[in-house]
């Protein structure tokens, strides 16, 4: 007989599976009302509260709403006041007047780890575009944290959905919907408005995040690929209901105080309430946080010739109203086989009307040198609208002379990613100067050594334009 394993993942980390599905979860039997959403008296004395991620009247296929059944409704709190930490506000919030728009290619050394900050105080806006009050645009963050958020605290953003790309360390994200344990090579999306608390079960963390001010991430169309491939819907994991009973009903001494911080219109606000925001006993709907393990991505590529557009590596896309033109695509470059015949296999030289922000989760990237001053895990690059870029000189020489046998790139588990946006992004003061990670000679280092290989065919005079 085979030995049975006694290990089971703690129940609070169980999941529901399926992107964009209708999900429901109850932590106490019978907490979900049957056959109606807001009965006169919901089960077990719970309050029903609707949480809307799209307009009530958004088309059915885009509509995202969830019903919470909770111990107290969210409105039960004192007024918010402006947050007293102004530097935190400027660190997290987009200020269009202070963005730097520069056509230069930029690259950053790995961002520092931190021992003092928690997930929220360790978020740094690096780049962005648009305006959350108009629900347009996005913000790109680096996070680094060394401690858990204070036990009785929660954060939410009314400005957008947050896509988190875990690069180093594990995040235990407690949300109103339940827990998500997010490890390196996993991503998570916390929807606009959802309250969360991040603790660090295994030490310091570092990673990347994108706040999307407009719409929501969805799976890309598969077109001729067919009905499966890339990120498959069933691999997205949604938390199960998990709640605390610290509802503050016993007034007087020992009453709990929960600090709720919110990001609203690019400013921070705070209130203190006497009950936990994590009191949702059951929920059902289509608007919820989720996570996805990038190892599960089914990578598709060229099996004949030519390097395809990186859109074949799209995990999630946040569309703009213009078909095929994203506010943000989240694209990965995972380990894969390259077999193209008579093909320059790394990315081609390129100028793009979209902006390309790249990060490296692990390993190396086939168009760039690693090592000191190179493109390194935990670092980043930005090739803004129409800024020329492509393989550095060394990668070019290597790839244009390589024997074209089948070759696995990133076989060591490498994974780079890209936030590609139709918007021109500005870089914050922190991103450009204060972080002190911008590599001085990125352009020179990468492309300064590019050689001229042009040879005019002997006897060829050109067509009158040879000066
Ligand atoms: O610039 C980059 O490295 C990203 C990228 C990758 C690719 O395979 C094709 C185009 C592209 O912009
Ligand atoms: Fe590119």
UniProtKB/TrEMBL annotation:
<protein>
    <recommendedName>
        <fullName>homogentisate 1,2-dioxygenase</fullName>
        <ecNumber>1.13.11.5</ecNumber>
    </recommendedName>
</protein>
<dbReference type="GO" id="GO:0005737">
    <property type="term" value="C:cytoplasm"/>
</dbReference>
<dbReference type="InterPro" id="IPR005708">
    <property type="entry name" value="Homogentis_dOase"/>
</dbReference>
<keyword id="KW-0479">Metal-binding</keyword>
<keyword id="KW-0223">Dioxygenase</keyword>
<keyword id="KW-0560">Oxidoreductase</keyword>
<comment type="pathway">
    <text>Amino-acid degradation; L-phenylalanine degradation; acetoacetate and fumarate from L-phenylalanine: step 4/6.</text>
</comment>
<feature type="binding site">
    <location>
        <position position="356"/>
    </location>
    <ligand>
        <name>Fe cation</name>
    </ligand>
</feature>
<dbReference type="GO" id="GO:0046872">
    <property type="term" value="F:metal ion binding"/>
</dbReference>
<dbReference type="InterPro" id="IPR011051">
    <property type="entry name" value="RmlC_Cupin_sf"/>
</dbReference>
<dbReference type="Pfam" id="PF04209">
    <property type="entry name" value="HgmA_C"/>
</dbReference>
<feature type="active site" description="Proton acceptor">
    <location>
        <position position="307"/>
    </location>
</feature>
<comment type="similarity">
    <text>Belongs to the homogentisate dioxygenase family.</text>
</comment>
<keyword id="KW-0585">Phenylalanine catabolism</keyword>
<dbReference type="InterPro" id="IPR046451">
    <property type="entry name" value="HgmA_C"/>
</dbReference>
<dbReference type="GO" id="GO:0004411">
    <property type="term" value="F:homogentisate 1,2-dioxygenase activity"/>
</dbReference>
<feature type="binding site">
    <location>
        <position position="350"/>
    </location>
    <ligand>
        <name>Fe cation</name>
    </ligand>
</feature>
<feature type="binding site">
    <location>
        <position position="365"/>
    </location>
    <ligand>
        <name>homogentisate</name>
    </ligand>
</feature>
<keyword id="KW-0828">Tyrosine catabolism</keyword>
<dbReference type="GO" id="GO:0006559">
    <property type="term" value="P:L-phenylalanine catabolic process"/>
</dbReference>
<dbReference type="InterPro" id="IPR014710">
    <property type="entry name" value="RmlC-like_jellyroll"/>
</dbReference>
<feature type="binding site">
    <location>
        <position position="389"/>
    </location>
    <ligand>
        <name>Fe cation</name>
    </ligand>
</feature>
<dbReference type="Pfam" id="PF20510">
    <property type="entry name" value="HgmA_N"/>
</dbReference>
<dbReference type="GO" id="GO:0006572">
    <property type="term" value="P:L-tyrosine catabolic process"/>
</dbReference>
<keyword id="KW-0408">Iron</keyword>
<feature type="domain" description="Homogentisate 1,2-dioxygenase N-terminal">
    <location>
        <begin position="15"/>
        <end position="294"/>
    </location>
</feature>
<feature type="binding site">
    <location>
        <position position="389"/>
    </location>
    <ligand>
        <name>homogentisate</name>
    </ligand>
</feature>
<feature type="domain" description="Homogentisate 1,2-dioxygenase C-terminal">
    <location>
        <begin position="296"/>
        <end position="453"/>
    </location>
</feature>
<dbReference type="InterPro" id="IPR046452">
    <property type="entry name" value="HgmA_N"/>
</dbReference>
